[in-house]
Amino acid sequence: MAPMELVQRIPADQTFIGIIDPKICLKKCIDKPCTYFCPTQVYRWQDNRIEIDQERCIECGASIMGCPYHNINWEYPPGGTGVMFQHT
Ligand code: SF4
Q: Which domain holds residue 23?
């Protein structure tokens, strides 16, 4: 089962994922690993920058560990928003 099928989401009206320095993505980070280490494809390389779809985030923490340049500012969504995991 795909990860996105296991969660219900309460949308956050604030940004909780951001790129600290877009120039690092553009000029230093050759492989763009965020575009494949994230299990729900929050990060996408488009128009020479990382696009973030934070509504896809399942709060697994991969963003904190996976970026080789520690260039992702990731926080939990504000209280009362984010994912609720379903146990089936
Ligand atoms: S892995 Fe980090 S530095 Fe590389 S493109 Fe993604 S956010 Fe930018």
A: 16-74
